[in-house]
Every structure is written in structure tokens, then in C-alpha cells.
């Protein structure tokens, strides 16, 4: 794990956030932000046109720009170069998503506004060269539908809309071995069926070729949902290029769990990998026959 994530630097990171956020208005005047569609527009596009989406967040940007190791994915040049290729892509069937902070700061909680202002100042002037000038981006936060908003009264409608993506469809989840998307809740109840391909919880790119090979055995009529950090973007991109609808679904299940609990902070979800919550990377064993019956391939080891 990169030293910047260590607890020793926590105070320094907090101070740096405030300093960087102060110059946010200057930075976005010098470097105008790209055009990013809303969450509603993004979900409508995916539902109506059955497109795919690769979603980028601050972690992926730090991976590309500062070449950092992330807590769950060490730096691999090939993965970094492939993510840059995706940002520059002009594939008509593949949307590229940028985070909510690049679309709007309105309705974000104070700490989220601070985070995105500081991240944009630190990242965007150097990221800009990887983003085509006239490209329209979509909203990567289409899976972040609850926790970071001052007013989350629209969250229920957002979750209802996102579930329409897999309504009456056969779904294949490609996920980390401890992610367990939809287990213990009704997130995928509208789907016709759910199958799972498991990969490693950490450093999933080590199994990239095996994961792609297994995914390509599936019917192209199935919807492929991928939750696997930076590796998810490359899996989605490669599958979409050969005719699958694939969606980088990321933290949707955890956001839904927080929504169901009415959580006001990012709490650990028992039995699921919860990377952003204290203690959330320590995951208990699961006793759930339905879950294990859905696993069609385990590539986690």
C-alpha cells in the first residue's frame, strides 16, 4: 500500500485538502471542466440504448497520474496504459464516466465538496491531456446514489431506476471474492437470473486474462456487471468491444446497503468487502446456499 494512505499522514492530508480547495475557483477558470452528464441522463442512456460504461474515480486518476499503488491494486504499467486508452476511446457503444465532482458540487455534503475541490485541483490540470476536448462524458457516480448527498430524498428513485438495467435479464456478476453483490438484499430481484464469476479481492488484474476468457463463454444476451476496482474498467471495455453490454457497477451494492440502513456514515457491512469503512476490508465467512449456487467460476486463488 502506498505510504500516502497511512495513518501517519492523515493530518497532513487534511491540511492539504483545505489548501487545495481554496484555489479550486482559480483552477477551474484556467482549466474548464469537461462536459459530464447527470446521473439521470447516464442511467437513461444505459437503459434506453443498452450501452456499456467504464467508470473512473479519484483512485483511478491517482493510479494514472501519480502512478500510485492503491490499497487493493498495485501499480501495473499495462493496466495504467489500458485505462488511458479507455479515457481516449471513441467507441460508440461505451460510455466513459467521470465522478460527480466533475459534473456539479451542488447537493454534496460539505466534506464531499471539500474532497472533490481538492482532488480536482491536484489531479485535473495533469489529467486533462488524457481527456479528448470535445468528448461528452457520463456520470461515474451513477452507482453512488446515497451517502454523499445533503438531500438524499431522490435516492430511492435512483435505486429504482438503476435496477431497471437488469429487469427481466440474465445477469453475470464479475466481482471480487468478498464483494457478494446483492447478497442479503433485493438489489437483483428484478433480474431473471444471477450467476457469479469470482476474482481476487486484491490485485485482480493478475487474473485479468482468465476473467476475460470466462466472461466470453457467456451469451451476449446476458448483462455483465463488473465490480473489481481498476480492473473492472478494462474488463468492461474489452467485453463491450466484442458485443456485450457490460457495466462497471462498483460500489452500488454497498451504497444500497447504507441506504437500506439509513446510515449517516460509511459503516462496515457484515459479510461484504467494504473498502471505505473502518474494518471493512476484514470480511467474515458467509453461510448462504443461494450465493454459492450462483458461482459458476471461482478465479480468486
Extended strand count: 8
Share of residues in helices: 25-40%
Mean pLDDT: 95
**Rg, please?**
18 Å
How would you name the oligomeric state of the polypeptide chains in this document?
A: single chain
Number of helices: 11
Low-confidence runs (pLDDT<50, min 5 residues)?
Answer: none
Report how far the terminal alpha carbons are from each other.
20 Å
Largest sheet: 5 strands, parallel
Describe the 3D structure.
- With 301 residues, the chain is an alpha/beta fold.
- The chain has one domain.
- 38% of the residues lie in helices and 13% in strands.
- It contains eleven helices and eight strands.
- The longest helix is centred in the middle third of the chain and has 18 residues.
- The radius of gyration is 18 Å and the shape is globular.
- The chain starts with 9 loop residues before the first helix and ends with a strand.
- The mean pLDDT is 95.
Summarize the structure.
The chain is of the alpha/beta class and 301 residues long. Helices cover 38% and strands 13% of the residues.
List the helices and strands and how they pair.
Blueprint: H1 10-22, H2 24-30, H3 39-49, E1 52-55, H4 58-65, H5 77-88, E2 94-98, H6 110-127, E3 138-139, H7 155-163, E4 170-176, E5 193-199, H8 208-215, E6 223-227, H9 229-241, E7 245-248, H10 252-261, H11 289-294, E8 295-298
Parallel strand pairs: 1-2, 2-3, 4-5, 4-6, 5-8, 6-7
Amino acid at each position: 500500500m502506498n505510504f500516502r494512505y497511512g495513518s501517519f499522514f492523515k493530518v497532513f492530508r487534511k491540511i492539504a485538502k483545505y489548501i487545495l480547495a481554496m484555489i479550486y475557483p482559480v483552477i477551474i477558470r484556467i482549466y474548464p471542466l469537461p462536459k459530464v452528464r447527470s446521473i439521470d441522463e447516464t442511467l437513461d442512456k444505459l437503459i434506453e440504448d443498452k450501452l456499456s460504461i467504464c467508470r473512473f474515480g479519484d483512485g483511478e486518476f491517482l493510479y494514472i497520474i501519480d502512478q500510485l499503488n492503491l490499497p487493493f491494486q498495485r501499480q501495473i504499467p499495462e493496466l495504467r496504459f489500458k485505462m488511458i486508452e479507455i479515457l481516449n476511446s471513441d467507441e460508440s457503444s461505451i460510455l466513459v464516466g467521470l465522478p460527480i465532482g466533475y459534473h456539479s458540487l451542488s447537493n454534496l455534503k460539505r466534506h464531499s465538496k471539500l474532497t472533490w475541490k481538492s482532488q480536482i485541483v491536484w489531479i485535473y490540470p495533469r489529467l486533462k491531456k488524457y481527456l479528448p476536448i470535445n468528448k461528452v462524458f457520463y456520470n461515474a457516480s451513477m452507482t453512488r446514489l446515497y451517502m454523499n448527498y445533503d438531500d438524499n430524498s431522490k435516492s430511492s428513485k435512483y435505486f429504482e431506476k438503476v435496477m431497471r438495467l437488469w429487469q427481466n435479464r440474465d445477469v453475470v456478476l464479475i466481482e471480487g471474492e468478498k464483494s457478494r453483490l446483492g447478497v442479503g438484499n433485493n438489489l437483483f430481484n428484478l433480474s431473471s437470473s444471477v450467476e457469479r464469476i469470482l476474482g481476487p479481492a486484491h490485485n485482480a488484474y493478475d487474473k485479468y486474462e482468465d476473467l476475460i476468457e470466462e466472461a466470453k463463454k457467456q451469451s451476449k444476451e446476458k448483462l455483465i456487471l463488473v465490480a473489481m476496482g481498476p480492473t473492472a474498467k478494462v474488463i468492461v471495455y474489452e467485453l463491450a468491444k466484442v458485443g456485450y453490454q457490460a457495466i462497471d457497477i462498483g460500489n452500488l451494492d454497498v451504497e444500497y446497503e447504507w441506504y437500506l440502513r439509513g446510515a449517516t456514515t460509511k459503516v462496515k457491512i457484515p459479510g461484504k468487502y467494504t473498502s471505505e469503512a473502518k474494518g471493512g476490508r476484514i470480511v467474515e465467512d458467509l453461510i448462504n446456499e443461494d450465493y454459492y449456487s450462483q458461482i459458476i467460476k471461482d478465479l480468486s486463488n
